Structures are given as structure tokens and as C-alpha cells.
Amino acid sequence: MARITAGVCTSHVPAVGAAIDMGKTGDDYWKPVFAGYEFSKQWIKEEKPDVIFLVYNDHATAMDLRLIPTFAIGCGDKFDPADEGWGPRPVPVVQGCPELAWHVAQSVIQSDFDLTIVNEMNVDHGLTVPLSLMFGQPDQWPCRVIPFAVNVVVYPPPSGQRCFNLGKAIRKAVESFDDDLKVQIWGTGGMSHQLQGSRAGLINQEFDNQFLDRLRTDAEGLALLPHLDYVRDAGSEGIELVMWLVMRGALNADARELYRFYHVPASNTALGHVIYENSM
């Protein structure tokens, strides 16, 4: 059967993607950021996942105010990089895994989660930057990817508890799939940041590190954190962190934190990254 072997979380800062694309990873400003992913790149090369279930948020590219699904699963064969206003990123086309995606959709919907099924969409930096951070600049991505978009842009976003429970439903779905696949689940976005208003540029290192600690030691308690706490303490875009709870809910309670990296600033945000090995 398929199994979830690991979970990965990382920020998806668009300026990080631009630094990669423009060959600036060795610049003094960016070098500490990319050094923090050297362990991860070697680790995933050895892990060789067959499929990545990648939880991210669309930034008004595939979806906009005309259509705002709370949860949307990509069931197509492929997903092209989106043009976010300055042309698509020069990265490979994302190859989907429709067989597993449709299976997950059916199982999760039957578990009372309402998913929007998407057969054709472009994917933006929310999805491609994490892939670049973990895999570098290959001619093609080394595994298939199931995009899973969560609305954390327009109020109301789903609660942390809803995302945590969704992760559990995804794990159940994956484990009931007949093919022998190594699946990783990734949560992206965050950490603390705010992009507009009088608090633009907010970074709260204390909140971020407490979140990382609780993700490891008290995930069920962390899932109860209300939206207001994210907005007040982590900035308006800090709500993206609920997507990390999808990852944590999909792993066993005793999953082991293998690696953690935290850096400020990366552009005008705090950047966080963790790897969890799932217990079998």
C-alpha cells in the first residue's frame, strides 16, 4: 500500500524563487538562506519520494475573487508554472499523480471534507519555490506532485483544527491506496509576516519559534489556536501557518523532527523549515 514516509514544511517567499532564478543564491544576503537547505537537498535525494502531496496557497493566479475554494485538489496530469506578472518561473512543468489524487479526493470527501476538484490550473510560487528549495534546478522534478490549495487569502480561512483533521483524513486516504508508493506531505507558507498596512514588515521570532516547538510537542493543542492569534502575533499573512498543520495531522503523533531551520529576514518575512520522519 502507499504510505506517508515524511513531512516537510517551508516558507515559500517569492523573492527566494527570484534569487534562484537570477543566480543570486551565493550573494551575501541570500547565502545563509540557501545554506539552511543543504541538509534537506541531500536528505530528499536519498529519500526519493514517489509523490509529494503539496499543501500551498494560490496567490490570485489560478484562482481569484471570482472563485475561492477553501480546499482544492489538483487531479490533472500536469500543472504549468504560472505567470505572476513577470512571466512564468523558469522551472519544470509539475507532473501530477491523478490516480492517487482522485483516490484521495474520493476518500476525503467521503470523510465529510468538501474539496474542489481541479483538473487544469497553473501553479505559482507557493508551490514552485518549495520544490526549488528542496530539489534545486533540475531539468525535471524528480517525482510527481499533487497540488492541494488552501484558501488563506480571503476571510474566512479554515481553522487550524480543520486543517489538522484534514491531514488525518489525507493519511487515511493515502494508506488505503493499493500501489506501493512513498508519499511525502508538505505544508508551505509563513512564517510571521505582514505585507501591507501600518504593520508591514512585521516579524515575530518569539511566536515563530514557539510555533515550531509546539508543532513537535503539542500539535493537537496548537491546532486550537484561533485565527485572531495568528493575525495579532504573526501578521495578516501569518495565517498561512495553518497549512503546516495539514502536514502534522497527516503524520503519526510520534513522528520525529529530523531537521529545523529558521532565518530572518528573507525579503520582508521570517523563513522557517522543518522535516519530520514519520513512524511506521
Quick tags:
about 280 residues; Protocatechuate 4,5-dioxygenase, Chain B; eight-stranded mixed sheet; 10 strands
Which class do the helix and strand fractions yield? alpha/beta
Number of helices: 10
Alpha-carbon distance between the termini?
A: 13 Å
Q: In percent terms, what proportion of residues is strand?
A: 15-25%
What's the SSE pattern? EHHHEEEEHEHEHEHHHHEE
Average pLDDT over all residues: 97
C-alpha Rg, in Å?
17 Å
* Number of extended strands: 10
Strand order of the largest sheet: 6-3-7-2-8-1-10-9
Task: State the major sheet.
Answer: 8 strands, mixed
Question: Which CATH class applies here?
Answer: Alpha Beta
CATH superfamily: LigB-like
Quick description:
The protein has a single domain, classed as Protocatechuate 4,5-dioxygenase, Chain B (3-Layer(aba) Sandwich). 34% of the residues lie in helices and 21% in strands. The chain has helices at 14-21, 31-35, 38-47, 98-110, 125-135, 160-175, 205-217, 219-222, 227-234, 242-249; strands at 3-10, 51-56, 71-74, 78-79, 94-95, 116-118, 144-150, 182-188, 256-266, 269-277.
